[in-house]
Amino acid sequence: MNIRKISQICAAALMVGGMANAQEFGGEKADPVMASPFSFAESQKKAERAKEVAAQESGSKVIGGKVAEDGAWPWQVALVVGGYPLQPDIQFCGGSMVLDRWVLTAAHCIHMADDNGNYRDIPAERFNVVVGTNHLVEGKGDVVPVEAVFRHPGYVGTEFDNDIALIKLARAPRAPYRTIKVPDAEFGDYLEQPGVTTFVTGWGLIEGAQNPDRLREVQIQMMERDMCNGLLLEARAEEAVKGFGYAAQVFGMNQATAEQAWSEFVQHVPAPLTPNMICSGTYEGGKTSCQGDSGGPLVVPLNDGSFIQAGVVSWGLSAKDSKTCAENAIFSAYTRTANYVGWLNDTIARNN
């Protein structure tokens, strides 16, 4: 954590004329810097069909990518709202085939808040999984019903950690597909080195908030978790200090005292990316994932021409309107699959 940089943010905000006044503080809320995970509820809002589900703005799209070739990324699947013809608007998350009847995805894709704000798993009969196509139109691929969902027990709907889940299909897909492997802890450490090439794929929103019917891909790279945490904390600090400055003014704190209080406060702020997450993107920005890509795979090419799944699309930075993704964001966060090999194996063995 770059405490000096975050403290400088506070000092700049607390300079004479820099404090928020009461009128400013009581006005519109500052736009949130962080996007929430893209939930099943939001997907149904996007489809404008399941009105009984509470919509939640959030997000993880392939920004700056290109259309994938037919047959590329054959482990990629789409999670779609059940009961409607296949089209882009009913797709809400991605996933990957890890065994013939098992799909790996993000926990936030199958766990959502109901109308009363209580988080629960999505009933299996409410959605399907599309396998064997990169083109989300009627008549393409195989729309497979779901038998059961298995959310990691450590995942909490209001947080990002342990954002991983398994979906058991009701039957094996009848369209061509391939499965993809996940690394163990030792290999995961190797794959996570900064600069390692990665690819992320999905049908998430593209520039202009459009829902593409064709799968998109983008090449990015692993980035240092500490660097990503520092950038996130600086972004959050720029928003948080607005309210802090007003509070300091109300309580009559001078600038030196306020800066000291702020410095002590940020010492206790948890790092946004935990050891269960990896960071991938580009230093120039403009290439990342967004709404609808959540749950999809982050893969690493190996020397033999194959791929291995290092991450699951989890969350990233939102744009200033808080409804789309920041197209200049340099990275997104992904669940580190290597940390969950034991849970994946145990869950499949108990429920096969």
TrEMBL record:
<dbReference type="InterPro" id="IPR009003">
    <property type="entry name" value="Peptidase_S1_PA"/>
</dbReference>
<dbReference type="InterPro" id="IPR018114">
    <property type="entry name" value="TRYPSIN_HIS"/>
</dbReference>
<dbReference type="InterPro" id="IPR001314">
    <property type="entry name" value="Peptidase_S1A"/>
</dbReference>
<keyword id="KW-0720">Serine protease</keyword>
<dbReference type="InterPro" id="IPR001254">
    <property type="entry name" value="Trypsin_dom"/>
</dbReference>
<dbReference type="InterPro" id="IPR033116">
    <property type="entry name" value="TRYPSIN_SER"/>
</dbReference>
<dbReference type="Pfam" id="PF00089">
    <property type="entry name" value="Trypsin"/>
</dbReference>
<keyword id="KW-0378">Hydrolase</keyword>
<dbReference type="InterPro" id="IPR051487">
    <property type="entry name" value="Ser/Thr_Proteases_Immune/Dev"/>
</dbReference>
<keyword id="KW-0732">Signal</keyword>
<protein>
    <submittedName>
        <fullName>Trypsin</fullName>
    </submittedName>
</protein>
<dbReference type="InterPro" id="IPR043504">
    <property type="entry name" value="Peptidase_S1_PA_chymotrypsin"/>
</dbReference>
<dbReference type="GO" id="GO:0006508">
    <property type="term" value="P:proteolysis"/>
</dbReference>
<feature type="domain" description="Peptidase S1">
    <location>
        <begin position="62"/>
        <end position="349"/>
    </location>
</feature>
<feature type="signal peptide">
    <location>
        <begin position="1"/>
        <end position="22"/>
    </location>
</feature>
<keyword id="KW-1015">Disulfide bond</keyword>
<keyword id="KW-0645">Protease</keyword>
<dbReference type="GO" id="GO:0004252">
    <property type="term" value="F:serine-type endopeptidase activity"/>
</dbReference>
